[in-house]
């Protein structure tokens, strides 16, 4: 509890451009939670290097993601928006927690298995201990709630298990975090393979809409979106492509699926796809405009980065010092 409010922590990878899925499924929820909680929203650049990155690209992408947090509506004076690598306590706590996490637990993580299969030439130790760093992220801020997608639930469970284990040995050190799987957060699928999640790393450029895509690119990708031969705009599992487009349309307009079915009753897929494209363009326009302003105002963004890193370091170090003392590290001499 800080100022009578519970604390939220969440983070996004600093790789690639954010997709419409990242925005509608996550970032948009972060914004709606921001008034009721103390929020720490991190750009997890340390997690990013578990997969080989080009340094200049990583740096540029990390800045983009941070600016997108702000452009999407997070107030950086209220929410703590910062880079993970600017707060050394993350890596330090991660080391300590790694000594309270079992190989067996980490071996069971499905994301590790997936990523190891995908990057068979670079199965590094960081990829294996990724969930420990994530636990450190969360536990450092005594977080109560952690908004995550379903794919991160297993990591969150592990963070809870490690926190409980640590508390059982040393007393109440960590707040035990709860996952927050948003009710309203839309799960957006690929426009080309609607059985797959929309992904930053999809090789098919028509599969994903990026938050910073130009309007004509957005319209073009929706025109090419995979549908079916049924020919009716209906919200049904048998029409996964159309269902996904309806979900996107609803998330951008606030309409319910039934209303969309009615609106497009008797109309063709072409009309519907254009309407979805236009709704997305309209929804993203203010974010893109704000992003462009932030890009021009380097001094302002730098100031935010500095201030928030100080704030994050302050809270993170409070927890880290407590943990270091508990495990028996020698006191600092002042
Ligand atoms: N692993 C998360 C993802 O890929 C990102 C992340 C890192 C995170 N640390 C976190 C999410 C802490 C929530 C809390 O999506």
Quick synopsis:
This protein has 334 residues and is mainly α. Helices cover 54% and strands 7% of the residues.
What brief labels describe this structure?
334 residues; mainly alpha; Rossmann fold; Tyrosyl-Transfer RNA Synthetase; 2 domains; 3-stranded parallel sheet; 13 helices; 7% strand; globular; binds tryptophan
Tell me the domain tally: 2
| Sheet/helix structural class | mainly alpha
Low-confidence stretches: none
**Which of globular, elongated, flat, extended, rod-shaped describes the shape?**
globular
Query: Could you tell me which ligands this complex binds, including any ions or cofactors?
Result: tryptophan
CATH homologous superfamily descriptor of the largest domain:
HUPs
CATH architecture of the largest domain: 3-Layer(aba) Sandwich
The first-to-last residue Cα distance is 29 Å
Order of helices and strands: EHEHHEHHHHEHEHHHHH
Strand content: 5-15%
How would a crystallographer describe the biggest sheet? Answer: 3 strands, parallel
Tell me, rounded to a whole number, the average pLDDT.
95
Q: Quickly name the level 1 CATH class of the largest domain.
A: Alpha Beta
Work out the helix count: 13
Rg, nearest Å: 21 Å
Order of strands in the sheet with the most strands? 1-2-3
